[in-house]
Structure formats: C-alpha cells, structure tokens
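Q: What would this complex look like in 3D?
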Amino acid sequence: MKQPKLFLIAVIALLPLVLVSCIGATQPKGGWSGPTVKDGIIYAGTRDGGVVAINASTRSQQWDHTFTSTIIYATPIVDGDLVYVGTYSGKVYALSIADGEDMWDYPRDGYMGAIVGTPVIANETIYVSSSDGRIHALNATGGKRKWESEPLLAGKLWTSPTVIGGTLYVSTYDGHIYGLSAETGKLLDWSFESQAGFTSSPVIDEGTVYVGSFDRYLYAIEIGANVSGWKFPQEEPAGSWFWASPIVNQGIVYAGCLDGKLYAIGAETGEKIWEFDAEDPIVCSPVLMDNLLVVTDESGTVYVFDIGTELGDEAVPSRTISIGASVRSPFCARDGLVYIRGEDNSIYVVDIDKGEVVEGWPVSLTAEE
Amino acid sequence: MEVWNLIIANPVLNVLVALSHILGGSFGLAIIALTIIVRLITWPLTKRQLNSTKALQEMQPKIQELQKKYGKNQQKLQQEMMKLYKEAGVNPLGCLWPMLVQFPIWIALYQAIMRALATTPENLLDLAGRLYSWGIVNQAIPLNNYFLGLDLGGRGNIALAIIVGGTMWVQQKMTQAPSLDPRQASTSRMMLLMMPIMFGFMSLSFPAGLGLYWAVSSIIGIIAQYFVTGGWGYLRLGSPSQSAPVKGR
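A: Here is my prediction, written as structure tokens for the whole assembly.
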C-alpha cells in the first residue's frame, strides 16, 4: 500500500505551512515605546530593545543602551539625572542621563512580570504595573523596593497607574478600578467593578475616572461611586475599543477610538460635542499644545485641531501632516514640535506651524556600531 | 491574507470567543465545543474515510493473498491492488481528506488562540480589528486563559503531550492494517509511531489550547471509528500476520 507513504509526504509537506503561518504570532514585535524630550534631548525606546538618546538640535545620537533579549513597550521617563525604562522581560532600569550607563536595575535577580504600561514617577517613587498582576513601588534614587501590591488580577496588568495625591488608581483587563495607597500599596476601601474589562489606563479629572472598555464604551466613573456616571456613546457602542487614554481639558474629554474616530465629549454630561473620522485606528492618546489638539492615527497622519475655535459637529483639522510611517507609540509635543516614533524605528519631528516634518528628520533609532 | 482572515481566521476567532461567553467564560470548553463543531462539519468526509477503512479491513484477506502471490513483483502487486480497490469502490487515499481539511482549521485555531488570549500586546491590539460587533463577542473579552490547570495560551505540558500522542496512536492503530510485506510493515510501524510522537512534541511547543483541540479531536475520532467500523479494529491485534476482526465477516 502506498497510503502511509503518501500520508507521510502530505504531512511533511504541509507541516512547514502550519509552522510558517504560526511563526511571529507568539512573539512580541518591537514594542511601541514612545519618545520623551527633556532639555533638548530625545529619549526613546527602540524596536531593537534598547533606549537611545538623540540631540534634537544636531540629530546626533548621544548614547544608546541595548538590553539583552527584550522588547520595550513602556515609554522612558526622565527625572533628575536618570532615565527610567521598564522592559517586556520584566525589569526596570535606571540609566544615567549623561551616558546611558546602567545605574541600577530592579529586580536585581530574576524578573518581575512583563512591563507594558509606562511606569509613573511621583514623590521620588516609581510605580510599575507588571504582568505578574501587581504594582511595584521602587525608590527612584536607588531602585530599592518600597512595596508591591497584592495581585490585582491574574497577569496582564498592562495599563499604567495614575497617581492623584496619595492614591494610586489602576484599571484592569478584568474590569476593575482599584485605589491603592501610594505610600503602602494597600488597597483602599473603594474599588469599581464593571462587567467588561478596561482597555486603557485611567485618566482622572475633578474626582472622575475616565477609562475605555472592551465593550466599546468610554466610561466616566466618579471616585467613590458604585455605578458609572455616564458611558459614551450613549446608545450604540463605538466601532471599536477606546484603546488610548483620553485627555481632559476645560470640561471636555478628547478620546480617540480604534474605529478611527476622535471624539470631543462633555465631561459633565457625556454628550458628544464633535467628532472627527480619521479613518485609520487611533492608537495613541491625543496631546494638547496650548489651544492645539494633536492626534495621530495608525497610518502616520498627524491631525491638528484648534480647540479655541468653533469646530461644529464634524470637526475639520486645521493641519493634516503625513509622516509616511505607521504610528503606534505615544508621542509628545514641545514648543510647537511634535516628536513621534514610527514603526520604522525612526524619530520624526513635526513642525505644527509649518505643517511638515522638520528638515533632517526622521532619524533612525537603530543603535550605531 | 485578507481572504484568509475574512473566510477562515476571523470567523474561527469570533466563534471561539462567542462560544467562550456562552459557556460561562471558559475558553477551554469553547475549544472543545469548536472541536465538536469542526468534527460535525467534516463528518461527511470522516464518514467516507471510515467506510473506506472498514472496506479496507474487509479486503485484508484478499490483499494479503495478493501480497503472498505477487510479493516478489512489486509492480504487479500494485496493479492488482489498485484493481482490487477499484472493484471494491475504495479510495486508499480517502483517509487523507479529513486530515487535510483540518489543516486550515488548525492554523486558524492556532491564530485564534494566540489572538483571543492576547498572549502579546500586539495580539491584543490586533484583536480589536478582528472582532465582530456582536455584543456577545465584545462582552467576552478578555478571556480566561486557564482550563483544568492549563494555561491555554502557554506551551502544553508533558501530560497533555502524552494524551495527544496516546489518543492519536490509538486512533491510528485502530485503522492501520497489518501488512505481510516487510517493507510496508516497517513503513506502517514508523508512521504509527511518528505521527503521535510528532504531535506530542508539537503539543509541547505550541499553545496548550491547540493540544487540547488535537486531544479532543482524536478522542472524537476514536469514538466515531469505534461505532462506524464496529469495534476497536486493529488495536486488538498484536501481530501483523493476524487478520483483522471485522464485524459481520
């Protein structure tokens, strides 16, 4: 009988197809760490798993620090003389702002769970959410552990915490918002439970938490309340998740959605003020620069809205700039310039007034030999 | 790739997520339910394969007779066997089809598991664009990774690998006819061992959810084979020289 032989040949021929189709889905790809700018230096996580410092004036690389076998999703944060970065392998590193030298790392031995959300620094403490389901609080100067919370969920604590006063607020994928003492890490009496999990990190304004959910709504939850104040859209859910955290300014919530829409929503009422359809998913939080609201979509188009003017029901951007590279990383804005890390592992600097990428940019983040 | 996502990958993903919601948030039960659905969809092919198997079992005495008669003339043996298959209306390759049809399902299932369980941040972000707007789907996210102590998104453990390999061996052994030709007997023995070992090994390397699918699929296959072919088939035989005990012969 030829049957077994043919069977064997068929299996052997098709097995690579199975394997090839599967490769790539199990491993994270490059991360989406964004840039931070301080004193004319841009610090950004790279798709190669490192941190690079670039002089914004000369476009030259000041230093680079590549970590071993990791990916970086968290945006580096700069405080004092140190650059802090959390890695997907589960370590927090403090690098010298001057030369990128490793000053300390935590944990010294082994790893905590994967770090995806950007750590937060407040009161000389770094608060890190980790895939071990806990929040870790570290002393910002020496990296000594202050406390670690009890597990808030079984893994995938991929959102960033928010610190308001002495309280740390955390949203989780299983639909909880917890308040923790920033001093001790103990859970406070108030927590909020939703039927659907939360996609975005919490944003807090005037005692209200604004957070996106897997059920395609954006929720406003008053701290201390057991039910949400409002949800947006008020009737049918949006076309996708509110993945990026919204921002709140002067009573208006600006929220980007993965369905490509940017919404301006009354913070008190939850009613839509205006919307704009970018058509491509909005993955990053909007950024406010005086009266200018800047938002990017995944295709790499930057939209600028003058929120000091009447925008009507269907807002029209005052500027539309395409950088020509896909964008998933958070971006930052300083002095009329917007700093964006593209998925092509390059930093783009966009001049909002001129409506174009500044001459000489993009600059590659690939570590120099 | 768009066609693949539209026709196979996204439907499998959404059905899995919806099943998970229906089955009380258990992704493991959703995988089992999907396996049963896949087995039901491929049942006409499976039935044909089982009937072919049964016919092959019944033809064993004649095949062995031909092997004895033309053992030294391979070409003539092949010709006579093909003639015999043709007369009996049996396609010896018929058993391949259910397996081949399941390949795309395996690939889609693998992708669905990785995406639905969002094993990487990219997978979670990617998931948003693949879910249908059904309320049942959106309320189910995020899914519970764990089932009977297994992390369905993580690599399978040794127990799962043994179950996958063991059930596959039993299923194959039930249908693999003994041969008098030493060369064919050797190939059969190799196949009987190679496939379960390969799938057992793959269960250790791939997400446990896929291993769960393979194990459940094999168990369903064993049950279907038992009832359609009427018993344990060649599983009960110790020696390749013995003929197959087929009901009604």
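A: To summarize the key features: Helices of chain A lie at 3-22. The two ends of chain A are 60 Å apart (CA to CA).
Q: Very helpful, thank you.
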